[in-house]
Specification:
- The protein has 643 residues and is of the alpha/beta class.
- The chain is 41% helix and 19% strand.
- The protein has a six-stranded mixed beta sheet, with helices on both faces.
- Helix 7 runs parallel beside helix 8.
- The longest helix is centred in the middle third of the chain and has 36 residues.
- The radius of gyration is 30 Å and the shape is flat.
Length: 643
């Protein structure tokens, strides 16, 4: 159990938090929430030990293993993706190398020396098995697949990975290490909808301690059993998920308001008494007593949240045609230079975006969402098919790097005024910035002094201030806090134009989107409304029963169909699916053989006969090689099928 008591931290005259106490241990899955700039990352780094508190102490038991995922990572090169993830199993990796070296020594020694090596080999094997070492490589592959890596990517060099994919590798390494206490700062920022759903299911059963910062309400609700809110320089703990937190906070605010109102009435009565009898000698003692009581009174301060009724005064864009964009039979991809063998990303895409609608693009990273955006913006032409763009369509595009081009030497107000037309269109820039959380003197802060979330919020304010009728937003919620996500949601609701939105924030999608486009397996499928089965791909409406290797059994009120109905087209993947099933059965059988041989290796009596022990060691190595080859076959077939 990690405990922190009386933590305080200040920068200059600004106090981030004071007198913070908390406990983190097994079974506590805690979400830390609060506005950008309140000190969430500073608090986490203080708990981990990267910063020292001004006041207070953090007690970390010596045997406690802490795993930490920050928002920014150093570059990791020189290894493959799989090798980097396997660093999370450091002790097991060292044991595996030791076992391999001892296995070699067994064949190179004789007599008493061989007997000593065999005993050491047996002890190492037993320790390796106790720690779950024989399953660690399979676990690493499973975690990588859950986080969106194709099997072919597992052996790719880290040098080829973008920042978002490197963050996923770091997350996979951390999950594989299975620390006693897992601490993560915005773990979902670089994930897609599929990976977020997988991660929340993985963490919902986490048996150790967990502390994480997130702006994703659905993710918090699925994972956390406690909420820590950092507001007003102090921490308040709530038991339950995000929905419970919202209810409990409202109840607490209601009690604060009632107590403050009662105190205010009492103070008013006391002040009237003082004013009435201030100059009456017979009441002098009573008057002085009440004056001192008021001076000692600890006034109740109601911590009201930011005004939720903010109104957004968007510049009125010109009216576009009813059909903003239409794709008909579009195939898109990237050619290899000579144009003869293009790499096709999307095939046969057909849908239309109508004026005033908000369309969300969802699907795994790398499936083609960015390609689809480039088609809509005109940055790339289709390989086949036709794209019809409407008339009078003006667009503005916000991407994940937008905050990085802000000038850190300018103030917030100066940077905002770089938007064409701001200050000359009748709107007050300060009033507009206030609707995005920049109130009062905060507009005079330097951009370089803002937190990452505050910079993202400023970049969003600049994007939304442009008078356009088509907004394309690529992951706008990254690094935003929950209040800022509320601001964005309100802004998109009030926006008078058309929106194309890429985000992993399912709450935001449900709140603002009219339609979904699911981009997956080379296709872009239009969905009317926002179906849950698309937003939550790991879950199913039929409440699947988990089986081995992640397969599921669907339950239905109607009996299963024994034969294909007459006239129903044959599934073209049927043969490949049969091969995949056979490969899975063979792989399971090979794994069972490995486990059986491991059981024999764990028998201490085996090592009394060196020749027999050496033969079992060789049998074990052969069984592992066979299992690994069958697993590779299964992964190859699975990739072909697109499962």
């Amino acid at each position: 159990m990690l405990t922190a008591s009386g933590l305080s931290r200040s920068f200059g005259s600004r106090t981030l938090f004071a007198d913070v106490s908390l406990q983190l241990g097994p079974g506590r899955r805690v979400a830390l929430v609060g506005s950008n700039g309140t000190g969430k990352t500073t608090l986490i780094e203080t708990i981990v030990g990267l910063q020292e508190p001004d006041i207070g102490k953090v007690h970390r038991p010596r045997e406690l293993r802490i795993g930490y995922l920050p928002q920014e990572l150093p570059d990791e090169v020189g290894r493959s993706v799989f090798e980097q993830v396997m660093l999370g199993a450091g002790l097991l990796t060292e044991l595996a190398r030791r076992i391999e070296a001892l296995g070699t020594q067994i064949g190179e020694t004789t007599g008493d020396e061989q007997g000593r090596v065999l005993v050491e080999f047996g002890e190492a094997q037993s320790r390796f098995e106790q720690l779950g070492g024989y399953a660690v490589e399979a676990d690493a592959h499973r975690i990588l697949s859950g986080l969106g890596f194709d099997p072919a990517d597992h052996d790719r060099p880290m040098d080829e990975m973008s920042g978002g994919w490197r963050m996923r590798v770091a997350l996979a390494r951390l999950l594989l290490s299975a620390p006693d206490l897992l601490i993560m700062d915005e773990p979902t920022n670089h994930l897609d909808v599929d990976s977020v759903a997988w991660l929340e299911q993985h963490l919902a059963g986490w048996s150790g301690g967990l502390l994480f910062v997130s702006h994703d309400r659905d993710f918090i609700d699925a994972v956390a059993n406690r909420i820590l809110e950092l507001a007003g320089n102090r921490i308040t703990e709530y038991v339950g998920g995000f929905a419970d937190f919202v209810v409990a906070r409202e109840e607490q605010l209601a009690m604060q308001r009632a107590a403050a109102a009662q105190q205010s009435r009492q103070v008013a009565r006391t002040e009237r008494f003082i004013e009435r009898f201030r100059y009456k000698a017979s009441k002098a003692r009573q008057v002085q007593s009440r004056v001192k009581a008021l001076e000692r009174l600890d006034r109740i301060v109601v911590e009201e949240p930011d005004d939720p009724t903010t109104r957004f005064g968007f510049p009125k864009p010109r009216r576009s045609s009813r059909l903003v964009a239409e794709l008909e039979g579009v195939t898109a991809g990237y050619d290899d230079g000579d144009g003869r063998n293009p790499e096709v990303v999307l095939r046969d895409v057909t849908f239309g975006v109508e004026r005033g609608r908000t369309v969300a693009l969802v699907g795994p990273n790398g499936a083609g969402k960015t390609t689809l955006v480039r088609l809509l913006t005109g940055e790339m032409a289709p390989l086949d098919g036709q794209i019809n763009r409407g008339t009078n369509v003006d667009l503005s595009h916000f991407d994940q790097l937008q905050a990085e081009v802000l000038d850190e030497r300018r103030t917030v107000l100066e940077e905002f005024k770089t938007v064409s037309g701001v200050g000359t269109d009748g709107r007050n820039p300060r009033t507009y910035l206030a609707s995005f959380g920049f109130r009062g003197d905060t507009v005079d802060r330097l951009v370089g002094d803002l937190s990452g979330g505050e910079q993202t919020r400023l970049a969003l304010a600049k994007t939304l201030a442009v008078p356009v009728n088509l907004l394309i937003l690529d992951e706008p919620t990254n690094h935003l806090d929950l209040p800022s996500c509320d601001v964005l949601e309100d802004a998109l609701t009030a926006y008078p134009g058309t929106v194309v939105l890429i985000t992993h924030d399912r709450h935001l999608i449900r709140s603002v989107a009219h339609n979904l486009v699911e981009v997956r397996n080379g296709r872009a499928v239009w969905h009317e409304g926002v179906p849950d089965r698309v937003l939550y791909p790991v879950r199913t409406d039929a409440a699947p029963t988990p089986t081995r290797h992640g397969a599921t059994e669907r339950h239905s009120d109607s009996p299963p169909t024994k034969k294909l109905r007459k006239g129903k087209p044959r599934d073209p993947t049927q043969g490949l699916r049969r091969k995949l099933e056979r490969a899975e059965r063979d792989w399971e059988a090979a794994e069972a053989t490995v486990l059986e041989v491991q059981g024999r290796l764990a028998d201490a009596d085996l090592y009394r006969d060196p020749d027999r022990a050496a033969a079992v060691v060789a049998e074990h190595e052969a069984a592992k090689d066979a299992a690994a080859a069958l697993m590779a076959d299964w992964e190859r077939l699975s990739a072909q099928l697109g499962d």
